[in-house]
Specification:
The structure holds two protein chains of two kinds. Chain A is α/β, with parallel strands linked by helices. Chain A has three domains: 7-83 and 163-240, P-loop containing nucleotide triphosphate hydrolases (Rossmann fold, 3-Layer(aba) Sandwich); 88-146, no CATH class; 258-517, 3-Layer(aba) Sandwich (Rossmann fold). Helix content of chain A is 32%, strand content 26%. Chain A is built from 17 helices and 21 strands. Chain A has a seven-stranded mixed beta sheet, sandwiched between helices. In chain A, helix 13 (380-393) crosses helix 14 (410-422) and helix 14 packs parallel to helix 15 (440-455). By secondary structure, chain B is mainly α. Chain B has a domain at 20-235. Chain B is built from 13 helices and two strands; from the N terminus they run ααααααααααααββα. In chain B, strands 1-2 form a two-stranded antiparallel ribbon. In chain B, a hairpin with a 3-residue loop joins strand 1 (279-280) and strand 2 (284-285). In chain B, helix 2 (42-60) runs antiparallel to helix 3, helix 8 (180-190) crosses helix 10 (202-228) and helix 12 (255-274) packs antiparallel against helix 13. Chain B starts with a helix and ends in a 21-residue tail after the last helix. The chains are: A alpha/beta, B mainly alpha. At the A-B interface, helix 1, helix 2, helix 3 and helix 4 of A face helix 8 and helix 9 of B.
């Protein structure tokens, strides 16, 4: 296949969702047999654009050519037939189906499935060999690791004859090692002539593996570059339209006394499953303690226990002079009164109520404050001024307290929640995923505020699945895997490789780098 | 001893007959819920088809025409449920309850309008209803002790719909687990997005599942009024649709297990009838209501997690709204 061939060409593709102009006359051309990156902030229109290509949405206007043929898809079926496969950010797999069943779904090739399954088995074995995509075929996908589930998604595309594979934020749920493995697969696919479109917001990935990169901002395609002729700073600037500080400068931490001491914690989740075992750490004033780990390794339950949502089943937490044990439980309200603030991981479900106005979201948890609560009625004027002052302090836009919480962008919702928790001047801050689904401009703002709180002498516990975030903010880092602490590192000695190994609990004692104690 | 044996066989025989509408309704519910649509309107569909089947059988003098009319009526209700909950993404429970209320009211009004009687249809005579079939060889096997009684009372002597009910269960199993439609059906109830991104129509699959369910439910309703009984009477389903729903949960949405649950619940009902007024030494009279309530109690115990775990299809009760 000649390298100069164009696999995908988009000409003036336009798409509105109500008042939102998701794609504004987008042009893109992707060379066949290359890896093409598309970067942009959340909400820049990357996913919408790819969903149009995959037939999930239809463009309002514009032209699409796939391998020089005019293309217009009204369902994913036409895209699959044209040779386009897509691996979505949230996998499109049926959890209780086997790998084999998942792969043939929609391309069974006959009314009875026994024969289809037998044929698929042969074809998948061949594909697995050709691309190094080995995966057990008769296991239910819910039993597979996330990395393996992603392989199934890729195999699904290849089995259906994809010559162009679109991957939407594929590394979001992977450990660094799993990501490297994925990039190795990309190379194998590329060598076989498969075209790959990679959607991501991680500039490092773009720089490492793509041949070309296109940048989207606010629905528009703002730049196309050859990867070898650009750099992360330029891309970041193109993404948000101004210069950004990717690495926030911070002074050395002035650690004080321990405000929160966790000893031998064991925590069961809401379903009664043990999610945290034998966890010990302390959080000191003037310091950010980062807790790293791949999603679902017990950090969520730990966060909830620290915030008083889940009880302890073993161990104790000393916090601001009080001790929490399995017998003595402090609920979130009591903890809040002690000076513990909690920013939950999932802002949509726990941080706010989407159908409430911003002013109501801004007082959740503090609704019994004297200046707001007058016994029976809330004092409307205080509710409003409370929200206005929080909005001003954290630059929440639009600064309208009467707007529904769900009408704010992710970044502004998060800023409002952070404002609510930070402005009460707590002593201990427990923060989960502060910048998940937040645009770069807001990320910068939020991280600066967290560091300001540290410098004001607060003890901060930061739980994040973004290694980059953990590394740029934390002073000390603990890594969790499968509910246990698999490593404790001083931030200045941390590097991505070591942390990644700890996240997979694959660090052998002889690999132990200097400054790491296990 | 032989008296007790005969009583047991007769109770089982009654269970078989009570079981039939439960099987049809539960299999109907199985298709709907496997596709991700909760079908609380089984009761209404049973009732409507019982009424329409009895009316048609009476007017045309043929149980077969009654059966077809009943299936059609039930399928129409299923499509209304689909229109509200699939096309318009309404709340499936609300739509199902509405169908139950609609069926309950409509059957009453129509008996008055068509037959000038409140809540009943004319009694079906002779060939107007499904009659029992005597299987070949009853006379020969009858001489064998035990087996003879079982064959004569339990296996032979039912009408065609009874045999159809038991035959349909393996067919349902085969459709659900061995065909392309079944694979897609199971997928759409677990993760409709996976189905959509595979280029298949979520709505089309759900409508087809509801249509099959409507037809099956129609057979169950027709059985009640043209085979088990010889006329439609007001609220004659007496909660059968809800018991079928309980059996569906109790059988964990698996055809054979659901069949077993239907039979268990039917047996309890037959037992309740048999034990009416009977005084058991040392215990006294067993309240019939307690036995009647047992299916629901068992289902609640199951749902509370005491006997295994009932995990419904993941997407059930959620209308599919296309978004990223």
């Amino acid at each position: 296949m000649a390298k100069s061939n164009i696999a995908i060409e988009l000409i003036n593709v336009d798409k509105h969702f109500g008042a939102v102009h998701a794609n504004d006359k987008v042009n893109l051309s992707v060379e066949s047999g290359t890896i093409h990156g598309i970067v942009g902030e959340n909400g820049a229109g990357k996913s919408t654009l790819m969903s149009i290509l995959y037939g999930f949405y239809q463009a309002d206007s514009g032209q699409i050519k796939v391998f020089d043929k005019d293309f217009r898809a009204t369902s994913s079926r036409q895209s699959i037939e044209a040779g386009i496969g897509m691996v979505h950010q949230h996998f499109m797999l049926v959890d209780n189906f086997t790998v084999l069943e998942n792969v043939i779904l929609g391309s069974e090739g006959g009314a009875l499935i026994t024969q289809s399954l037998a044929n698929a088995r042969i074809e998948l074995t061949r594909l697995a060999k050709e691309y190094g995509l080995e995966v057990e075929l008769d296991i239910a996908v819910e039993e597979l690791s996330v990395g393996m589930q992603q392989r199934v998604e890729i195999l699904k595309g290849l089995y259906k004859g994809a010559r162009v594979l679109i991957l939407d934020e594929p590394t979001g749920v992977l450990t660094p090692q799993e990501s490297d493995e994925l990039f190795r697969i990309f190379e194998a696919l590329k060598n076989q002539g498969v075209t790959i479109i990679l959607i991501t917001h991680k500039l490092r990935e773009i720089m490492n593996i793509t041949d070309h990169v296109s940048v989207m901002r606010a629905g528009k395609m703002v730049a196309h570059r050859e990867t070898s002729k650009t750099n992360p700073e330029e891309l970041a600037e193109l993404m948000i339209g101004r210069k950004v500080l990717l690495n926030i400068k911070k002074s050395k931490a002035k650690s004080g006394k321990a405000l929160l001491i966790a000893k031998n914690l064991e925590i069961l989740n809401e379903q009664g499953l043990k999610r945290v075992t034998e966890v010990n750490f302390e959080a000191r004033s003037g310091e950010i303690l980062g807790i790293a780990g791949v999603t679902g390794n017990g950090q969520g339950s730990l966060l909830k226990a620290l915030a008083g949502i889940l009880p302890l089943s073993k161990g104790s937490i000393e916090i601001m002079g009080q001790t929490i044990t399995p017998e003595i439980h402090l609920n979130p309200k009591q903890l809040r009164e002690l000076g513990v603030a909690h920013v939950p991981e999932d802002r949509q479900k726990m941080g706010m109520i989407a159908e409430f106005s911003a002013s109501e979201t801004a007082l959740l948890g503090y609704h019994n404050d004297k200046e707001i609560n007058q016994g029976v009625w809330l004092k409307r004027s205080s509710v409003k001024t409370n929200c206005e002052s929080l909005m001003q302090a954290f630059d929440v836009r639009p600064s309208n307290p009467n707007l529904l919480s769900s009408n704010f962008s992710g970044g502004n919702q998060q800023k409002l929640i952070l404002a609510r928790e930070f402005e009460r001047d707590p002593e201990v801050l427990i923060i989960g995923q502060p910048t998940r689904g937040v645009d770069i401009g807001a990320i910068e703002f939020i991280r600066k505020r967290i560091i300001e709180m540290r410098d004001a002498g607060k003890a901060i516990i930061l739980i994040s699945v973004e290694l980059e975030e953990i590394m740029s903010l934390s002073d000390r880092i603990i890594v969790m895997c499968d509910g246990e602490i698999t490593g404790t590192v001083d931030a200045k000695d941390a590097n991505e490789a070591t942390l990644g190994m700890m996240m997979a609990n694959a660090l052998q004692p002889q690999d132990e780098p200097k400054g790491v104690k296990l | 001893m032989s008296d007790f044996f005969l009583t047991s066989v007769l109770t089982l025989d009654a269970s078989v007959r009570v079981c039939v509408p439960l099987i049809f309704a539960a299999m109907a519910g199985l298709f709907a819920e496997r596709s991700g649509v909760v079908d609380i309107g089984l009761e209404g569909k049973l009732l409507m088809s019982a009424f329409v089947a009895a009316s048609a059988a009476s007017v045309f003098g043929s149980p077969w025409l009654g059966l077809i009319a009943g299936m059609f009526a039930s399928a129409v209700l299923a499509m209304i449920h689909g229109f509200a909950s699939i096309t318009y993404k309404g709340n499936q429970i609300v739509s199902g309850v509405a169908i139950n209320i609609l069926a309950s009211g409509l059957t009453m009004i129509l008996t008055l309008a068509w037959f000038k009687r409140g809540g009943i249809t004319p009694t079906l005579q002779g060939e107007e209803r499904f009659l029992s079939i005597t299987l070949p060889g009853v006379d020969i096997i009858d001489h064998i002790p035990i087996l003879g009684v079982i064959y004569r009372e339990l296996i032979s002597g039912h009408n065609i719909l009874v045999y159809l009910a038991f035959a349909i269960v393996p067919v349902v199993w085969w459709v659900v687990y061995r065909t392309r439609f079944g694979l897609r059906l199971r997928a759409v109830g677990e993760n409709p997005k996976a189905v959509d991104t595979a280029g298949l129509s979520v709505e089309g699959l759900r409508y087809r599942a509801l249509l099959i369910g409507g037809i099956l439910c129609g057979i169950g309703g027709a059985y009640l009024s043209t085979a088990y009984n010889a006329q439609f009477t007001k609220e004659m389903t007496a909660g059968g649709g809800f018991i079928a729903l309980a059996a569906l949960i109790f059988g964990k949405w698996h055809p054979y297990k659901v069949l077993a649950a239907c039979f268990l619940f039917a047996f309890l009902q037959a037992l309740a009838i048999r034990l009416q007024g009977v005084i058991i030494p040392g215990v006294g009279e067993i309240p019939v209501q307690l036995i009647d309530a047992t299916p629901y109690i068992l289902t609640i115990i199951l749902l509370a997690g005491f006997i295994g775990k009932a995990v419904p299809p993941k997407a059930s009760a959620q209308p599919y709204i296309k978004e990223l």
